[in-house]
Fold this sequence. Notes:
Mean pLDDT: 89
Low-confidence stretches: none
Protein name: Alpha-ketoglutarate-dependent dioxygenase AlkB-like domain-containing protein
Radius of gyration: 30 Å
Pfam family, one: 2OG-FeII_Oxy_2
Region (Disordered): 567-591
CATH architecture of the largest domain: Sandwich
Number of helices: 12
Binding site for 2-oxoglutarate: 433, 442, 544
CATH topology of the largest domain: Jelly Rolls
Largest sheet: 9 strands, mixed
Bound molecules: 2-oxoglutaric acid
Strand order of the largest sheet: 15-16-17-25-22-27-20-18-19
Helix content: 10-25%
Number of strands: 27
Number of domains: 3
Domain Alpha-ketoglutarate-dependent dioxygenase AlkB-like: 419-551
Strand content: 15-25%
Amino acid sequence: MFDKGAHDRDYIDSTVVIARASGGMVRDKTTGEMRMGGDQKEHHTVSSFRNSMMYFNPVVIIAGDQNPRMPSKVPHAYCVLDYFKGTHIWSEKSGGYIMHRCRFEKFNATKPSWWQAQGTEDSVTLGALAKPFKQSCKHCGTVSEQVYLQGWMCLQPACESFWKLPPLSSDAEGLEPDKKSLEYDPRFLKQKTRWPIDDSIYPLTSDSASLSNQSVLGEDCSLAYWRGIMCPYCGRCNSRLHWTAWKCENKGCSFFKKVPHAIIPPTSLRDPYFPLSTQYTLSKDTHLLYVGLHVSFAHNYRINKYTIPGIDGFVVHMIANQTVIEEPGGADDMFVALQETDIGLRRRALKSGVLKGDNYTRHFLVNYGMPYKFIAATDSVSFEGAVRPVTDTRSRLNWPAKYILAQHQGKPVREIEADWKAKEFNEVLALGYFEDQKISYHDDGESGLGSTIATLSLGAPGTMRLRMKARHHSGISSKGLYNDNPPMPGCDKYDAPYQAHLKEVAKDLGFTAARNAPDAISMMLGHGDVVIMHGAAIQKYYEHAVEHEGKLRFALTCRYIDPDSLPDKDKPTYKVRPNSGNYDGAAVGRG
Length: 591
Ligand SMILES: O=C(O)CCC(=O)C(=O)O
């Protein structure tokens, strides 16, 4: 994809594109512009380009409407040009650094190029000129074509003649070219490269819309189904934003295709190597040595409780067994019910993103009860009239949260009941994940948030990882600012006494970059498991992420959100009534 930030020597006409390989750019602190920040490495864009050349794989080029080299004004923010062959890759110097540059040639050169300026024609067609001039380097012996009109240069960065025009006399040194006067040699630019598959025709659009006619178990939750599609009516490229359907977002276009879903039976979630039983389930969690672990067993849950030095709070992983998973209205029933109803799950626009236009969450979500606006602005929905898995979640998570808090305080549940009731869960955030969807590292530390957060996992097994935030771990933020929060156990700088640490701030400013901390806790979340996070400090110093293996997973999270913390514009227009359920996990499996 080529958009703004084109390099001086980037070039696009109707059949040839020349561009620098991406990577190695930094933002100039004075001008705010992107510039080379070091030699470009042989990273993935360079190796993908080489692969395109070596395997005869044409690549699709997309141009943005801010690309200054486009020969005509393009109609959309991002436009697909066509398939191109990767034909040449070479090195140059730019701003004193080594840069890789690639030449692409239109795969099917006879097809009109829609981006050619209207009423213009190519002055030279591909292959109409003499072959490019070739020469072998006197120093390194490498044979290469002449790229620029100003003269042949060796383009091997390791060669002492690299990026030098031939000297005017035999005893003189070659000089670097004046970069302003560099012009491509038309013989190089307009040469035609033959590929064995030159006559092939490859489609430029996906045909996902035609995939969706059968109902194959798990297929509609697979990657192919939530990737974007091109609208078969109007041609617009659309992301899959709706849980149950593809919908064209073009105003006036009526394309809406419901995707048939075959209910994934909960029994298909069982792992034959870890058979589910009425015994306490085994744990697959791991944690770093500095994290404290206390394991207990109660009411059909194995309870792994993690404490972190320096953090006032804890994380609990309650691992369910067959008795709770299969109880009426339990995890199995909820998993089926969530597949039978559209509870309003959507991929929501994120507040910020690198690309133009809306960027969407990778997963689907919907918020019930008090609005929870963290990360993605979700349109909250009232609990009134919500389907059972949503309404039941509050009651089903109230119980473990109360139970664990009471256990933590060494009291019976009834003694904390009144305090709990005053701030019981008033929000449910439902997340739905298809294959390969996940939630990246984040915290839940919104202002006005109650100190306890509980999540019920349903469906495919997930992994929840918690790690210290990079700015606390390495004492420096991603923007390079010194972090003046006291260092805490587990961070890189803990061993130095804090005062000495402060005295050494100047030296510490020599920190190169914020480094990600290792995962302190990894919890393998099974179907029916509950995670409880307690304490604001966990959200302040730590962040969590969840991935899953499988086609379909749900996470239902309950929080308390102080209604007074919401600005008037965010207050719900409906009443958030107290939870009327009275689920008691302690009674499950008795008699
Ligand atoms: O998917 C999950 O289990 C957790 C979701 C989560 O991190 C969140 O709701 O903040």
